[in-house]
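Project standup — Tuesday

K.O.: blocked on the structure for the chain from last sprint. Re-posting the sequence here as requested.
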Amino acid sequence: MPCPTRSQHPLCRFPLASLAIALTASLALTALPAQASSPAAWEDQTRDVIAQCTDASQFPDAEPAGAPVLFDDEAGTTALLLQGHYPQQHMNGRAGQELCLYLRASQEVFIAPADKLTAGPDALPDAPTDTADDTSKSDGAGSNDTATDDAATETSGAPDKAP
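H.V.: unblocked you, prediction finished:
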C-alpha cells in the first residue's frame, strides 16, 4: 500500500529500511542461547540455601544432612534435608530432621518435620530384593518365596488328592 503522506499510517512514518533493521535486531536478540550460571553463582546459591534453611529451622544446631537437591526450573525449588536436636524440654534433646524447601524465584523457605524420612546407608538397598532370578539361583533353602513355603506347609500332612 503506497503511503501518500507519512502521517496517514503508522508504518508509513518509518522508512522500510529502519523497520527491517529493528525487526532483524529484535529477532536476533531473542534467538540467543541462555547463558549458564557460573560455578561461583551455584556456590553462592548453595550457601544462601543453607544459610536461609538453617536460620528458619527450629533446631538450634541445624546443619545440612546432605547436599541440596535442585529441582528443574519449572518447579523452581531446591530441597535440603536438615538435622539437629529439638530444643523443647520435653523432647530431651532428641535428634531430628527437617525438610527445607527453598523457592529460588522468591527466596522463600518452607520447613516441615522430616523424622520419617530415612537418610544414610540404610535408606535404600544396594540391589533390588525381590527379583525373578532369586528363586532360580537358590537351592530352595532359605528361600524368600512365602507362597511356596505356605503351600508346602499346608499339604505336608495331608495325602495327595487327584483332581
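K.O.: great, moving the ticket to review. The two ends are 94 Å apart (CA to CA). The chain is about 30% helix and 15% strand.
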